[in-house]
Amino acid sequence: MKKMINLMCAACLAFIGTAAAMPAEFAVYAEDTAPASDTLKGGQKWTLDDEGTLTISGTGEMTESSASDCPWYTQREEVKKVVVEKGITVISGSAFSGMANLSSVSLPEGLETIKYGAFENDGKLTEITIPESVKSIGESVFNFCDALKTLSLSKNVTAFGRGAVGYCRKLEKVTVDADNPNYCAVDGVLFTKDKSELIKYPAAKTDTSYVIPDGVKTIGYVAFRDAGNLAEITFPESVEVFDSFAMNGTAWLKNQQEKNPFVIVNGILVNAEKCTGDVTVPANVKTIGDRAFYGSNATSVVLPETVTELLKNALHASNTVKSITVMNPDCKYPSYTSFPKDAVLRGLSGSTTEKFAEKMKITFEAVGSAPVQTSSETTAATTTTTAATSAQTTTVTTTTTTAETTTATTSPRTTTAATTTTTATTSPKATTTVSSATETTVTTTVTQNPEKTALLGDFDGDGEISIEDAQKVLNAYAEAVAGNDPKLTDTQKAAADVNNDGEVDVTDAQFILMYYVENSVSGNPTAWEQIIGKKN
User: Fold this and answer.
1) Residue 446 contacts by C-beta under 8 Å, 6 or more apart in sequence?
2) Over the stretch 364-374, which tens digit does the pLDDT of each residue have?
3) Tens of pLDDT along 69-96?
4) What is the pTM assigned to this prediction?
5) Sheet with 218-219: strands ordered across
6) pLDDT confidence of residue 535
7) CA–CA separation, 290 and 312 (whole Å)
8) How far apart are CA 397 and CA 133, in angstroms?
9) 288 touches 303 (CB < 8 A)
10) Which residues contact 186 (CB under 8 A, 6 or more apart)?
């Protein structure tokens, strides 16, 4: 577009007080836009006409590295239609992204690869036909294409990138050629061919309930994202992984959060974004899902010993979180997870948590030592008694000590005695009787002293306040929440209720852990009153 600036000489002369004669009028033309055609790095040609059609011609691979690397970037909002002509084999990453007015795309046979984000955030694109020659569709290719309603994959697609149709709120269905060996669609829902992963449930499906097929192990990245109609979902026991934001924006998630801020499926903490303050994860959780705490206002997080595994980015949380404590000494960590800025990772010294903190250069604080397992065993002795009798009754008693096992990490030393009583009875005609065991009685006696005065915080009554006490209080609370009777003695209740509010709950467990850290780990003698006052 050109601009014409009209300058009136008479006016200029009057302004500067000069009476020299000048032409009455002259025009200056300026160019204010980028060229409408040029050559790409890979040698291909591009043109953008007055109708808003962007045409790419030539052969081979487009090699631009990003959206801003494409020469039409500053004119992208003028583009209404994209035509890629035959001969182009690879569309570069983000090549046509951010084109707010793009509504039509024509792709040629012979095209093989569409790289990451190529059409991302093209809000008016309602449909696109992908040629059968295309083998690879990269990550986020159609992400945030809010108007896209359908997508069809041919039999030749071997790679469909993570989040390729991620945030597509109008998507109604995905179809896949039946002969595709890598992917399939059932009722518009996209799966891997073996149905081990549910890749995408279209957000605009009108169903209010859905049963995930048996055998599905992974719920993919943003798989159910923004499925606002979906209020009920049935998960099979086979599900063991939830990728990032898999359930966000669903009616199902909202319903679950109204019941409990901890959304748990098959022992996996799927979402905890509604948690606030000091948080202790329930004891029925075994795995922390990807970004489970993302968006929460938690200030500290304690993962109980029952948590055995952290999935990718499980520790990715808001910067409100100042500490995360992992109680399982053998917890499995992913190869990488982001971590809240300036937060501290706590765990047992010698644990996998300490090793992970060292690897990721995260500040680590020990809250105790990882247990060292030892065992001793005493072989049982067996006595066989032979009694020779004549017209009489003989009773022989044999005491046998059974195997004794001591495990330093799980329980105090225990010994069980088995008493075998053998009675041999003979008749007047009998000359010899070999005794055999007829009854074995094993008795275990536990003696409790109801008069014992509870040591505040010493839940297990071993005379020390430790991590184990905090863990056992947490377990008792979890049992109560689950509707089970934890069967606490009066002494245990008195020891556990450290804030004296009449309840044994998460707060008590946190107080006990804080007391242990201050007095035993940090070496700062601190009274219970100070601990409770600091917490409040």
Assistant:
1) none
2) 999 888 776 55
3) 999 999 999 999 999 999 999 999 999 9
4) 0.66
5) 183-186, 189-192, 197-200, 218-219, 241-242
6) 55
7) 5
8) 87
9) yes
10) 195, 213
